Input
Amino acid sequence: FWGMVNQTPGATISAPTPTEAPAITLLSASQTGNARRLAEQLRDDLLAASLNVNLVNAGDYKFKQIAQEKLLIVVTSTQGEGDPPEEAVALHKFLMSKKAPRLDQTAFAVFGLGDTSYEFFSKAGKDFDGRLAEMGGERLLERVDADVEYAADAEKWRGQIVGILKARVPAESPSQAAATATGSVNEVFSSPYSKEEPLTASFALNQKITGRDSDKDVRHIEIELGDSGLRYQPGDALGVWYENDPALVAELLALLWLKGDEQVEINGQSLALSDALQKHLELTVNTPQIVAEYGRLSRDEALLTLINEKQALQHYAQSTPIVDMVRQAPVELNAEQLISLLRPLTPRLYSIASSQAESESEVHITVGVVRYDIEGRTRTGGASGFLAERLEEDAEVRVFIEHNDNFRLPVNPEAPVIMIGPGTGIAPFRAFMQQRDNDGATGKNWLFFGNPHFTEDFLYQVEWQRYVKDGLLTHIDLAWSRDQQHKVYVQDKIRTKGAEVWRWIEQGAHIYVCGDANRMAKDVEQALLDVVAEHGGMDVDAADEFLSELRIARRYQRDVY
Ligand code: 2AM
Output
């Protein structure tokens, strides 16, 4: 179990003293940082209770030794269609496979963070919990599946876990625990800015980078961090606190016969309803819970019949923004009822498209504007609309960095890099190339990019062409999906170039995939498996194992959403 202390800046590992095994292993499997923050809080609770705990990010966990665990606590989120967070994919796969060992001496507990508006709510938590029990582990505490507003559940659970573990583990002497605590917290790298305490930065540039005739509106956005000292690395994401469109707020208020100046309470603070709707509550994304609750309030027959049809309810919530639901089934609500119907607004994460080696005090992101028509009205995504349509130059915007140690350039500058990023998935690769350019990294680089049309949708075209000319970019393969009769996607290009892709892998290439999780990333993975099988001469199982080993070795990394 030793040797898994992560050296990465900002990693959150409690290094155990080499002479004694940590009594408790706390595994954090996080996608957007919430699971990690909760695991860190639990670690601090356990240390304060004089318990020796080793907090490990799932991506660093040497899971083949899992049977040696005595006490294993898992905090995990779920993404997309019930998938585990990217950093826990290899662990999840191992546990679900026949290779998973018996857990005859392991007791465990699982906390799942999820979002009840998704069909596969907290699926990763359920998988881990169910499988650890199947493997023979003893369940210390019933699993918790928490919704977006998880704070209260999490606090209660932390208290229960500390109580259970205190009864199980002989406490260290306080001085020992304190030593572990100070040794573990990596204060040097921590920034004063966070999700809860964001930096107020200024909006510097908003440029449309798709053509006039494109079906897509993609913006290159630059934000000035000033002298904040806020640092990021290629692979990190930018968290953006956005505000809802005042016109949307006005529309909703009018439909509900509300004025907007009603006083409401949010987080213990009193403010006007219109302010709460604009700045503190989620207005653009509807959920099955909201539809069901609104159905009960409005007694609308169509909505009421949906309540018992899970699939139809899911579909309605996904395709009908809150304001359009209200328009279809109007009812008079008071301010309190409206507030309790809605969820708190959460920041959105965008993969960073710049390297500070080049952009210095700026951070760049690539934003696809979410926009669609419903019953003749154009609806726009909350955060993308805020960034693309409502911010003037020099306007204030609250941001923070969400570090992502699971999407990092190779440490070895000579290692080849294969980047697969259709659509706005291109963003982190712009940062990668800026960084490699700046570092004088000699490894080869290969980009696979795809979008509908060459003339309209070649994001950052000039920059890529310059990198090709300068020799930094060895190959660029482009999949214009709608420039011919049949669709061509990045995975088709990967298959066509399979022999060379395999050669690069043999030469130690690191493979990166960024963009759509549910379709693209799965299809690309299949293409990679096919390439490995065909050109590496392996059967399906061996190819699968090979890709898993690449993943564990950090040579296959994904930033998919
Ligand atoms: P399409 O919209 O023409 O189907 C970025 O969105 C690019 O990814 C577009 O060219 C889009 O093509 C393409 N795309 C859509 N589905 C995909 C999939 N399953 N795998 C790879 N690319 C896909």
Remarks:
- The radius of gyration is 25 Å.
